[in-house]
């Protein structure tokens, strides 16, 4: 058996909740991993804080410039393969409140670069009944309970 060392990667995401508690998620295609849904966000740039990275990614992927990051919901450490490279990702996920809306046309035009193939708002009931993978898998439970302190997954 050949063991490949995993490359460490830091990332941050924003769980954007509308006034009714629905969360905005992007859909990513099957490839090295199955189809999955994840919050806006991604890898940090050199020297970038988790909060700054989450906000930069949200603006790039949605075009929304009026969101404010709230409390840290959770940290999540997970392994996957990204562009053929084994990765160990260290991720921070923050809460934010915002209106229900679509990404801007400018952001949508860049979705191909980020491998985003769809998006939608998910109600808590829809999250609980999801049949495709969610990142993180415990997202429905986290958003249903909104823990008082950040949890580590």
Automatic annotation (TrEMBL):
PROSITE patterns registered for this protein in UniProt: NUDIX (PS51462), NUDIX_BOX (PS00893)
Entry-linked SUPFAM superfamilies: Nudix
Keywords: Hydrolase, Magnesium
GO molecular function (one): hydrolase activity
Cofactor(s) listed: Mg(2+)
Superkingdom per UniProt: Bacteria
InterPro entries (alphabetical): Nudix_hydrolase, NUDIX_hydrolase-like_dom_sf, NUDIX_hydrolase_CS, NUDIX_hydrolase_dom
Family per record: Belongs to the Nudix hydrolase family.
Name used for this protein in its record: Nudix hydrolase domain-containing protein
Species per Swiss-Prot/TrEMBL record: Streptomyces smaragdinus
